[in-house]
TrEMBL record:
Its cofactor is heme. Heme binds at residue 454. This is Cytochrome P450. The lineage of its organism: Eukaryota, Fungi, Dikarya, Basidiomycota, Agaricomycotina. GO terms for molecular function: heme binding; iron ion binding; monooxygenase activity; oxidoreductase activity, acting on paired donors, with incorporation or reduction of molecular oxygen. Belongs to the cytochrome P450 family. InterPro entries: CYP450_sterol_14alpha_dmase (IPR050529), Cyt_P450 (IPR001128), Cyt_P450_E_grp-I (IPR002401), Cyt_P450_sf (IPR036396). It comes from Galerina marginata (strain CBS 339.88). The chain crosses the membrane at residues 24-44, 295-319. It holds the Pfam family p450.
Length: 559
């Protein structure tokens, strides 16, 4: 039966007048011919210039997966094709995902790909004053932020007190103050207590002593901070207008944070005698109270989550790799012996505060590689940019002006062509003779790259190092399983939590179902190892709640 006969046999056509039937046949023939011509054209002509494979399916489903299981979403789609890129839709925005060395170089080195615009829409935890109808006069240019951050955290201010007193002794004093509250013996969750240390130091550097010295106020703003971190849900990001619980909690937390910080800024503005605190320095720069509040919030949200998770996991990796733990401990003890008064009766934190900043930066190569390897293993999320200037071609694909761009850091950090056994903790990979991080362009992205290196890198490293130094010089610990045996292999990571919210705040020591951003469930414990290596040694059993995992730190201070 011919196509004509099939069409004429259809009831809807058969009952039509003969002339109308002819018109229908003509129209259908023309349509079929047009479809055939288009198909032939696509087959015989080159692809559209710079075409990028576009994902099918419902955009809302695709976008939801991008926000809820980002790592799996990106890599499952990359595995479906050898292409270095693919494209999908989030709300009304187009997002291009990239991989490969050529794409990596372009992503981090191209002026048109804007850092701030990239994160403004696709990441939602950092509060903006405009969210609560407060005029935000702060300049969103990243250079403005970096300039003031560099001014506040320069080497002189950290060590010799460019104004009235140096910051380093205050930071170590904060660590000691917090650690003393652990008691002489007990249990401690590193994903709570170590984060407390990082939060304390970050607020100290970004605000004022009145706030940093007030434990109740610090606990209050830290709780608000975590409320905001947890508010960046797929629903809140995809449906920002929806008046759900996350939106309401974010608005309430932002308002309370603003009111609290506003009060401290105004208090310092009214003080008769200026101090060397960050708020006073910013007031002296002519910044408005709103600008200072937004700056403080930006510093806290930029610094706490990354420095906190790096500090926690560096300790965890050392606890499970005793050979590296012993190397770092020996290095810490060596600089204490070399750069402090060995006959001094000062407590550990004061002796560490006497060590020059140049020593912290340049004379701890083993700890440096441990931190570097920790960051390589845990920093595997997606970096974001937005093309704000003009269309550009990356790895043969055309990125239009206005498109967002996502690059999975795991493309470099977990790449077996760059790093040998990339999922293993092996700080020696950065040493002489191997230097695996130098195999290609931007093969290591732990501290930014290209046009956007991390402005706070030196301070972040210092925070991690002083925490590690106090822990290693003052504690000894081991990681064991629920049966009390040493755990030779850590649980495999869950890399899908894009917000890195890992804390035992709500399930401290008791629940094994709390979600951690990096590791899945598994009961962890640690056991005390008796060791008396100096008057400041503590014995410690690490316990925490990480992804349902539990670390226990039992610690004893030896006077």
């Amino acid at each position: 039966m011919s196509l004509k006969e099939v069409v004429l046999s259809l009831p809807v056509v058969r009952d039509l007048p003969q002339q109308t039937q002819g018109n229908v046949l003509t129209a259908l023939s023309s349509l079929a011919l047009a479809i055939l011509a288009f198909a032939v054209y696509r087959l015989v002509t080159p692809s559209e210039r710079g075409s990028i494979r576009r994902l099918g399916g419902l955009p809302i489903v695709t976008a939801w997966t991008f926000f809820s299981k980002r790592y799996d979403f990106l890599w499952s789609n990359f595995r479906n094709s050898s292409d270095p890129h693919f494209k999908f839709q989030v709300l009304q925005h187009q997002v291009v995902a990239l991989r490969g060395e050529e794409a990596r170089k372009a992503f981090f080195d191209t002026k048109s790909l804007d850092f701030i615009e990239g994160y403004k829409i696709l990441m939602g935890a950092v509060p903006r004053l405009t969210d609560i109808a407060v005029t935000d006069t702060a300049n969103e240019d990243v250079s403005w932020f970096n300039k003031h951050l560099a001014m506040l955290l320069n080497k002189n201010r950290l060590t010799d007190g460019s104004f009235n007193y140096p910051l380093l002794p205050s930071l170590l004093g904060d660590i000691n103050w917090r650690m003393e509250k652990w008691g002489k013996k007990g249990r401690m969750d590193p994903f709570k207590n170590i984060y407390d240390l990082v939060f304390q130091m970050t607020v100290r550097m970004a605000s004022c002593s009145e706030l940093a010295n007030d434990l109740e106020a610090m606990d209050k703003i830290q709780k608000l901070y975590w409320t905001l971190e947890k508010s960046a849900t797929p629903t809140a990001l995809l449906l920002p207008w929806f008046p759900g619980p996350a939106k309401k909690k974010k608005e309430a937390a932002t308002k309370e944070l603003f009111v609290t910080l506003y009060g401290y800024v105004e208090g310092r503005r009214a003080a008769e005698v200026p101090s060397s605190d960050a708020i006073d320095v910013l007031i002296g720069q002519g910044m408005s109270t709103q600008m200072i509040v937004q700056f403080i919030l930006s510093v806290v949200f930029a610094g706490v989550i990354n420095t906190g998770i790096n500090s926690c996991w560096a300790l965890v990796f050392l606890a499970s790799h005793p050979e590296w733990k012993d190397k770092v401990k020996a290095e810490v003890n060596a600089i204490i012996e070399k750069h402090t008064n060995t006959l001094s009766s000062d407590p550990l934190h004061k002796r560490l505060a006497a060590i020059p900043i140049s020593v912290w930066e340049d004379e701890m190569p083993v700890l440096e590689t441990v931190i570097r390897e920790t960051i390589r293993l845990i920093l595997t999320g997606a970096a974001l940019r937005r093309n704000v200037l003009e269309e550009l071609t990356v790895a043969g694909g055309l990125i239009q002006k206005g498109d967002f761009v996502a690059y999975s850091v795991a493309d470099a950090h977990l790449n077996p062509e760059i790093y040998t056994q990339p999922n293993e903790f092996d700080p020696a990979r950065f040493g002489p003779g191997r230097e695996e991080d130098k195999k290609g362009t931007f093969s290591y992205l732990g501290w930014g790259a290209g046009r956007h290196p991390c402005t706070g890198m030196k301070v972040a490293k210092l925070e991690i190092k002083v925490i590690m130094a106090v822990m290693l010089a003052g504690y000894d610990f081991d990681v064991v399983d629920k049966n009390g045996k040493h755990m030779n292999e850590l649980p495999k990571p869950d890399r899908n939590d894009i917000h890195q919210v890992c804390s035992g705040l709500d399930f401290f020591f008791s629940s094994i179902s709390y979600h951690n951003s990096f590791y899945r469930r598994g009961l962890w414990e640690s056991r005390v190892i008796s060791s008396l290596r100096g008057s400041w040694i503590r014995d410690v059993l690490i316990c925490g709640l990480a992804g349902g995992s539990r670390f226990i730190y039992i610690y004893t201070f030896i006077n």
